[in-house]
């Protein structure tokens, strides 16, 4: 159920996208403490984004989870995801925002129902 929705203005080819999806899945699962089989990663490359008045490489992410998020976890996730973006897409960590949502089970749907 943990979901990372990541958008960047950097075009992402299939090989890099696959690497990011694999790495992000492992990191989100490990840091939040949920099985990888529950993790969903969405990666949107080439999205028009202006940050601080420029269109230099930047990204925005949202993490949604039923539990598992707190100040310590959020900080670790932010750091780990920023490292992936810098390594794979040359996005400086100062050009990446991330928003965390800890939602109730009834607000997360799956398999035609809610959790």
UniProtKB/TrEMBL annotation:
<dbReference type="InterPro" id="IPR001398">
    <property type="entry name" value="Macrophage_inhib_fac"/>
</dbReference>
<dbReference type="GO" id="GO:0050178">
    <property type="term" value="F:phenylpyruvate tautomerase activity"/>
</dbReference>
<dbReference type="Pfam" id="PF01187">
    <property type="entry name" value="MIF"/>
</dbReference>
<dbReference type="InterPro" id="IPR014347">
    <property type="entry name" value="Tautomerase/MIF_sf"/>
</dbReference>
<dbReference type="GO" id="GO:0005125">
    <property type="term" value="F:cytokine activity"/>
</dbReference>
<dbReference type="GO" id="GO:0004167">
    <property type="term" value="F:dopachrome isomerase activity"/>
</dbReference>
<keyword id="KW-0202">Cytokine</keyword>
<keyword id="KW-0964">Secreted</keyword>
<comment type="similarity">
    <text>Belongs to the MIF family.</text>
</comment>
<protein>
    <recommendedName>
        <fullName>L-dopachrome isomerase</fullName>
        <ecNumber>5.3.2.1</ecNumber>
        <ecNumber>5.3.3.12</ecNumber>
    </recommendedName>
</protein>
<dbReference type="GO" id="GO:0005615">
    <property type="term" value="C:extracellular space"/>
</dbReference>
<keyword id="KW-0413">Isomerase</keyword>
């Amino acid at each position: 159920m943990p979901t990372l929705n990541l958008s960047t203005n950097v075009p992402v080819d299939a090989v890099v996208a696959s690497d990011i999806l694999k790495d992000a899945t492992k990191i989100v699962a490990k840091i939040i403490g949920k099985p990888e089989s529950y993790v969903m990663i969405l990666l949107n490359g080439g999205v028009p984004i202006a940050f601080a008045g420029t269109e230099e490489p930047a990204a925005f992410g949202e993490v949604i989870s039923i539990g598992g998020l707190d100040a310590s976890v959020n900080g670790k996730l932010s750091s780990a995801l920023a490292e992936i973006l810098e390594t794979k897409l040359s996005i400086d960590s100062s050009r990446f925002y991330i928003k965390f949502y800890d939602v109730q089970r009834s607000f997360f749907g799956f398999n035609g129902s809610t959790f």
